[in-house]
Amino acid sequence: MNGDPGRPGRADVEPVREPAEEIKSLQRCLNDLVSVLALPAMWPGGDARRIVNTLLDALVEMLGLDLAYARLKVPAGEAPFETVRLASSMRASTEEIRTLLTDAFGNDDPQTWPSAAPCANGNRDLQFVPMRLGLQHDAGVIVAASCREDFPQQTERLLLSVAANQAAIALQEARLLEEQRRTAEEMEWRAAQRTRELAAAVEELQLRVSMLQQLPAVAWCVTPDGTPDIVNQSWFDYSGQTPEVIHSRPDAWMDSLHPDDRQRVAETFRSGIRSGEAFTMEARFRRQDGTYRWHLTRATPIRDSEGNILRFVGTTTDIEDQKRAQQRVQDSELSLRLMTETIPEMLWSATPDGAIDYCNGRLLEYSGFESAAVLGQNWVRLLHPDDVEPTVKVWARCVATGDPYRVEVRTFHAPDRTYRWCVTSALPLLDAERRILKWYGTVVDMHDWKQAQDNLRSMQAELAHMARVMTMGELTASIAHEVNQPLAGIITNANTCLLMLGADPPNVEGARETARRTIRDGNRAANVISRLRTLFARKEIVAESVDLNEATREVITLFRSALQRNRVRLRLELAESLPLVTGDRVQLQQVILNLLTNASEAMASVEDRHRELLVSTGLDPTGMVRVTVRDNGVGIGRKDADKIFTAFYTTKRGGMGVGLSVSRSIIEGHRGRLWASSNEGPGATLSFAIPQAQEGTGPRLHYFADSVRRPV
């Protein structure tokens, strides 16, 4: 805090004065010293700028200075603080004085500061007395200057030194006050640092005692050997004990412990005290009404700067409600575990990142694996090697997106050491923010069901073939007509050819042309037979692009004679540029043939009007390709509209009721729909619609699906 008066100058040697004058000078010096010592009373609040301004004003007035200057160091990031006081006789501007002083005292080393500088008042020089402030001379600098040649005198130097010391002390206090204000909110966390000073440690301890008493929870403080030092009022309110009882002996507080917990808690407490480390324990404490409630006790040591333990401070918190809630959760988990272990289904669960963390006993018995062998990412060991890669991809996608998980996959079956088809499904458990907390899933053996489905599909295929064979009997006359026409032409052409060759001379060119017509009729008959064999043969599914206009024309070619025999007028309205569909051509033609047959038979009893049949194609409102067969026959009753597609239901004499049932099965296998409706006038309309062929995608024909499918 001592000021630095700089180097001695000419003013250090003062002339000898008379005693009376010396006494007056000393009295003035004493008065000035008293005034300087009284300055701190004017500096409350710790404002550094106010301290410096007041000091400069006092120095200028007491010493008759021509200039007083101060520069304070400020925290990084703040604007520097400088202030100047000038006598009325100084004609220089404040900015000029600042420039002069900056040039003179730009260097912080006081040994290099000059003792004089050119004065702004004529030819005289200013005599400077620079003084650095602060304990380490790091708070700033004060400069006093006068144009008097004898400045500073000994008493003036003394006053400046005392003033500098007073200012240094005040600035130090101001800095400390500012730091205290800035760190007030961090006092608790810096308790160990403040304990280095005894006064601060005492104040902190008093603060902690006050806080302990005001806490709504039980709080306490014990000495390093475990003797209770401070126990707040919450403990006395809870336990009914008194401060006298607590301080009567070190372990008096243990009287409130449950008998079953007393020995364990005593060992834990003493072990924690001996170790000098923080410790935690749970125990039941008796309330005033005699009820024991669970409490959580935590204790931590407070150390001085050298690491010695001063006190143990702890809290005892009532956790009875949490304990009961935890017990309910445990009971619920136990109940859930018992349920999952006894339910006759294979169950599993997984963490949010997809790692399997639980498999119930049914799944382990089914697969023959131990639980540890399939947890985590080892669940793939349950799968058929060919199914691992696609199943892992689906599971990874579901874990990332939270979508429901479902796959059909072959799973190892330990009893017969085979892989059986199973459906594995899972749903995520989400929190309020829709974050995944858990996955819960099932595994269902569907192997027997798949085999039954395969058998059912085989039976449906056989039934479809039977329906085509039955239709063949009804078309016998049409088939004979279609085949007889080219056969009659063949015979006629052959006889004509023989006559032309037997002529004299032979008509070779005519015979050649007749032979060509014979070949044409033979091909025609072969095509008819080929279509019939294709239509009525038992064949596996052939997925291909089908033009329904062309398929319809081929069926009508076979059925035209039957229509003519039944006096049915046929009208075709086939849409141009009809999109292709993907499916089995023979099955689709079977459906068209069945619709034509039913329409023709529905008009067999009509005599009062022309029998008219309209066959049309086009697109329905959903963009599917539609085929419609409309007749003006007897129509469909309301009670029959929903039943005609049921297997073995028929309204015809001698009918088996399988045609429309098989037809609907075929259309649904093509992902389409088949329906019937009554006309506004006489007759009915039957239609089917199937999706257009999509580029790059194959058909999904479930009617004749493969007997074994890979999981999707």
Features of the shown structure:
alpha+beta, Beta-Lactamase, 5-stranded antiparallel beta sheet
Our estimate of the beta-strand percent is: 15-25%
User: Helicity, in percent?
Assistant: 40-55%
CATH class descriptor name of the largest domain: Alpha Beta
CATH architecture of the largest domain: 2-Layer Sandwich
Number of strands: 22
Ends distance:
86 Å
Quickly give the structural class. Answer: alpha+beta
Radius of gyration: 55 Å
Whole-number tally of structural domains = 4
* Adjacency order of strands in the biggest sheet: 2-1-5-4-3
* CATH third-tier fold name of the largest domain: Heat Shock Protein 90
What does the secondary structure layout of this molecule look like, with pairings?
Elements: H1 19-37, H2 48-63, E1 67-72, E2 81-86, H3 94-105, E3 116-118, E4 125-133, E5 140-146, H4 154-182, H5 191-194, H6 198-214, E6 218-222, E7 228-231, H7 233-239, H8 243-248, H9 259-275, E8 279-286, E9 292-303, E10 309-318, H10 320-342, E11 346-350, E12 356-359, H11 361-367, H12 371-374, H13 385-401, E13 405-413, E14 418-430, E15 436-445, H14 447-474, H15 476-502, H16 508-536, E16 543-546, H17 548-565, E17 568-573, E18 581-584, H18 585-602, E19 611-619, E20 625-631, H19 638-641, H20 659-669, E21 673-678, E22 684-690
Parallel strand pairs: 17-19
Antiparallel strand pairs: 1-2, 1-5, 3-4, 4-5, 6-7, 6-10, 8-9, 9-10, 11-12, 11-15, 13-14, 14-15, 16-18, 19-20, 20-22, 21-22
